[in-house]
Amino acid sequence: MKRYATIALLLAALVLAAGCAETGDDAEAWNESLAADAADRSGSADPHAADRPASAAAGTAGRVVETFDAGGYTYVRLQTPQGEIWAAGPVSRVAEGDEVSLAGGMIMRGFRSPSLDRTFDEIWFLSSFGPAGDPADAAAGSGPRPSHHETGSAVDLMEPPTGGISVAALHADRKELDGRRVKLRGRVVKFLDGIMDRNWLHLRDGSGDAAGGDNDVTVTTDGTARVGDTVVVEGTVAVDRDFGSGYFYIVIVEDAVVTVEQAL
Fold first, then answer.
1. CA-CA distances (angstroms) from residue 67 to 131, 155, 187, 227?
2. Between vectors from CA 115 to CA 16 and to CA 106, what angle results, nearest 5°?
3. What is the 8-class DSSP label of residue 197?
4. Are residues 9 and 120 in the same domain?
5. Residues 6+ apart with CB under 8 A from 95
6. Any idea what the CATH number is for the domain that residue 56 is in?
7. In this structure, what DSSP letter does residue 52 have?
8. DSSP 8-state class, residue 162
9. Closest among 254, 251, 261, 208 to 235, alpha carbons compared
10. 19 located within any domain
11. DSSP code of 261?
């Protein structure tokens, strides 16, 4: 039964690959690779080969450190808690520094992209890129809330509040700050409300670097704000916070009090 379920999943992925890119050079290569993988797994002498899952990307999350469109797909290189991974999916608006989750994917090893003239040792082929890396996104549904989300936001450098620190300093000193209350000033670049009995926002203050992943911090609160607001938040630092299903934060500010200084 597991063998047939795995083959069915692979066949479904073939249909997805065919529909993902109307004219992309890579679509045919995806189809050929998936078909070969399905044949290898179903005919393997290893009795457990077809039982091992070829898909497990749903719930994986990370920060985009490189992205480009090619062959009818959007390719991204992600920094995740487990290390860097490559993924490709339908052409999407993805920017460096965004936090995204990966939905409904299959891993492919030794895939050669004709459009890039490049072979990937390992890459995820996806049905979609999730809107962000918060567990709130999964709970909120499959699509983003446009009025609550501003991706790829560049923010001018702001002074920390009195007695506070910058977002970059929070990342740099997170081990020493674990369990302590901190204050930060920044611009809200994302906000989701009423998820898991709390509200979620992403804060940037112009410090840090998107490639290094220290320009953005996630904050949980029972307060409210709108995307574009300048706020001061005061909350408790938590390090290596794991919400499960791949939603892992090296640092997060929890139970924060949010004060809007300048509304959008």
1. 15, 20, 24, 24
2. 30
3. T
4. yes
5. 64, 67, 151, 152
6. 2.40.50
7. S
8. T
9. 254
10. yes
11. E
> Residue 117 pLDDT > 50, yes or no?
yes
Q: Which two tokens stand for residue 118?
A: 């490049």
Tokens of 39: 């044949």
122 and 150 co-located in one domain: no
Q: Distance of CA 253 to CAs 4, 79, 236, Å?
A: 45, 20, 5
pTM, full prediction: 0.52
Q: Tell me which amino acid residue 155 is.
A: V
In the block, tokens 């001018």 appear at 156
Nearest CA-CA partner of 85 in 94, 93, 76, 96: 76
Distance CA 95, CA 219 (A): 21
Q: Which amino acid is at 261?
A: E
Q: How many other CB atoms are found less than 10 A from the CB of residue 193?
A: 17
Which is nearest to 98 in space by CA: 83, 76, 82, 72? 76
- The helix (run of H) or strand (run of E) holding residue 178 is none
- The pLDDT tens digits of the residues spanning 26-58 come to 655 655 555 555 445 444 444 433 333 344 444
pLDDT, residue 33, reads 57
User: Would 220 be classed as within a structural domain?
Assistant: yes
Cβ atoms of 97 and 152 closer than 8 Å: yes
